[in-house]
From TrEMBL:
Entry keyword annotation includes Methyltransferase: yes
Protein name as it appears in the record: HIT family protein
TM helices/strands, residue ranges: none
Organism from which the protein derives: Corynebacterium suedekumii
InterPro entries membership: Histidine_triad_CS (IPR019808), Histidine_triad_HIT (IPR001310), HIT-like (IPR011146), HIT-like_sf (IPR036265)
GO molecular function, one term: methyltransferase activity
Length: 141
């Protein structure tokens, strides 16, 4: 059975994409720690990051670094947070989010999916895409 991320990647479920290539995709979290929270995900469904092919792991982190810079710029934050948790969806993913303090690294403070403002989520994705120069599907313009 496909993970929810595979369904998003395949277009079976909606997603606010900010980046996409043949190996890695990135889209907004539906339960963000802060607006601008992005999930960087390998296209191939692999549960644990420690099981990824080293080349895929490298590609995932290269994309994460670029998106981290964009998130930091788009939200004028002092840092881009980076977390690998791995318990909520059995598909490797890196959480990136704008942050200014350690206290913001707290999943118990994440917004519920139904508590986010759709217009603010759309704006967050657009701000990140503008810096990355990608379209609404995440592909380079």
């Amino acid at each position: 059975m496909s993970s929810v991320f595979t369904k998003i990647i395949n277009g079976e479920l909606p997603g606010r994409f900010v980046y996409r290539d043949d190996t890695v995709v990135a889209f907004l979290s539906i339960e963000p720690l802060r607006y601008g929270h992005v999930l960087v995900v390998p296209v191939d469904e692999v549960d644990r990051w420690t099981d990824l092919d080293p080349k895929v792991w490298g590609a995932l982190n290269e994309v994460a670094q670029n998106i981290g810079r964009a998130v930091k710029e788009a939200f004028d934050s002092s840092r881009a947070g980076y977390i690998i948790a791995g318990f909520d969806v059995p598909h490797t993913h890196i959480h990136l989010f704008p942050t200014d303090q350690m206290g913001e690294y707290d999943f118990s403070q994440a917004m519920a999916a139904d508590a986010t403002d759709p217009a603010t989520m759309d704006d967050a994705a657009a701000r990140i895409r503008a810096i990355l120069e990608t379209d609404e599907s995440g592909y380079p313009i």
